[in-house]
Write a structure and sequence with these properties.
The structure is a single chain. The chain has 191 residues and is of the alpha/beta class. It has helices at residues 13-22, 41-48, 61-70, 87-92, 113-122, 158-183, and strands spanning 2-7, 28-35, 52-55, 75-78, 94-99, 127-134, 144-151. A seven-stranded mixed beta sheet has the order 3-2-1-4-5-6-7. Helix 1 packs parallel to helix 6 (158-183). It starts with a strand and ends in an 8-residue tail after the last helix. Bound molecules: 5-O-phosphono-beta-D-ribofuranosylamine.
């Protein structure tokens, strides 16, 4: 069984999608949530699903690594985590992020949530979407795993675009993670 750790700071819709997708799976399970926000949606969801959660408010990388090793974590997924990931974790674990635009467009510092959708609309783009990518030391710059697109019409607002992007996230993200687990051969411990 592959143990997944999710890092999230927000509403937690992607966290919930992952938990639901792997609920009853014999392949993988979401074993722990790490958040920097005590009362965010993701933490509330972890309580409903009885998933261990950890709140980290300062840079205590040694402690996080210890916890993740003791939970036998094979894969870390960032799903709306707004803090920088310590290098120690990047060196030790495979880490995947989901970003709500077609990277490299509209990525980098400050590009999260509605800021992204607003910038896409303001730039007059005709398409947007999601990017699932590995995490390296630079914000939103790791190797791309996959991208899915949606159209942006003249009538779209940041809000309506965010709904289109969320639909892509729920449709593709958990399935892509499942395929990645097979592709990386995490099951046999070969990364
Ligand atoms: C999602 O749009 C995701 O692409 C981005 O942050 C948002 C998190 O939303 N990285 P939620 O907390 O999963 O609802």
């Amino acid at each position: 069984m592959i143990n997944i750790c999710v890092f999230a700071s927000g509403e937690g819709s992607n966290f919930q999608n992952l938990v639901s997708h792997f609920n009853n799976s014999t392949l993988a399970k979401v074993s722990i949530l790490i958040s920097n926000k005590l009362d965010c949606g993701a933490v509330k969801i972890s309580k409903v699903f009885n998933i261990k959660h950890l709140i980290i408010t300062e840079d205590n990388s040694d402690y996080i690594v210890e916890e993740l090793v003791s939970c036998k974590i094979d894969l870390i997924i960032l799903a709306g985590y707004l803090k920088k990931i310590p290098k120690q974790l990047i060196d030790k674990f495979k880490i995947v992020n989901i970003h709500p635009s077609l990277l490299p467009k509209f990525g980098g510092k400050g590009m999260y949530g509605m800021n992204v959708h607003k910038s896409v609309i303001d730039s007059g783009e005709s398409e947007s979407g999601i990017t699932i990518h590995f995490v390296n030391e630079e914000f939103d710059k790791g190797e791309v795993i996959s991208q899915y697109k949606c159209n942006v019409s003249k009538e779209d607002t940041p809000e309506s675009l965010s709904i289109k992007v969320r639909n892509l996230e729920s449709k593709y993200f958990p399935v892509e993670i499942e395929m990645l687990i097979h592709r990386l051969d995490l099951i046999n411990g070969k990364i």
